[in-house]
Amino acid sequence: MRRSARQRLTNESMLSARAVAVGFSLITVAQTMTSVAATTSSEPRGLQASAGRDARTGSPRQRLQKLRAVPGYNPNRVNDLLLLRADTDHLTATQPKESSNNRHVVFFHGDIQNFEEEMAVQPEGSQWLSWSLEQVALTLGRRFPDRHVWVVRASRMYLHKFSCYHNFVESNMFGAPEHSPYSPDYGAFCHLRALLSHGMERANLPNPLQTQGGADGIPSGFSLTLVGFSKGCVVLNQMVYELAGARADPQLSHFVRCISDLYWLDGGHPGGSETWVTDKQVLKGLASSGVSIHAHVTPYEVCDPMRAWVGREYGHFIKTLEEFGACPSKELHFEDEPPSIENHFRVIQEF
């Protein structure tokens, strides 16, 4: 599956040029959308100012915990994590609080998104503070109130806006992926498992996931829902490529089988292909895995005539899964509105 060195060098140059163009496009749109900027730049300041009141009012902010440099599969592969603990106060009488201890949602963010304090000092980032990692965690907490929500920050933010998930999938500096099949020594599944295990220990959650092992390393009731947004979907795509190999590995198969749902939210990256998985054999494995598949898109990604391949690949992804007997849920949001970055972000609230 590997490309020749010459082909890869050529593609890297093309991707770099395309990514720079995308970056300038984002800057231009952000600068012109003044009404959005006014809204997003003021909200987090109010939230920061009220932080002292959270402990008294029981605000969801009190349940947020930032974990820096959490190691994954090996000590050199680290990611920052943001944890929003499950809202156990809202469980019903028939749902004991222990039922949420090992139900987790993991979110992989897109470009520009970062921690609030880092977005606030960047000209582009400050325009979109309402989509900071903290705000997204709180949004997901309302969507999944009985689960722990983990936001995985990309290990690198090139030029403070291009998210790069090279700890999960081989990528260039702009975050365009180079997908590969499962490897027991380097891959998205093994890194995620170790990252969550160390994160749970750091956060002092009860009954943490073990970094290795078969069924005995998985705590009772453990389940995972994975959500990728925009660039973050490259992590989900890599997992689809690894799925068959990971399910055959006795050390990882039980962990992989704990994944109940995969959500693709308006996937996109600066490469010229593989925005959505189109390999039929790979998609056949996904269709037979039993995982619930969800695809939520907006015209910003799938109806852009300058990136027509995104819409074609999305259609192929859905059609192929259906041909193999899967029933992916799918929805085109904001169909009757002009494509915009604002609506691209809003899919996080609407899915």
UniProtKB/TrEMBL annotation:
GO CC terms in record: mitochondrion
InterPro entries reported for this sequence: C2orf69_mit (IPR018881)
Region named Disordered: 37-62
One Pfam family this sequence matches: C2orf69
Protein name: Uncharacterized protein
Annotated organism of origin: Dicentrarchus labrax (European seabass)
Lineage: Eukaryota, Metazoa, Chordata, Craniata, Vertebrata
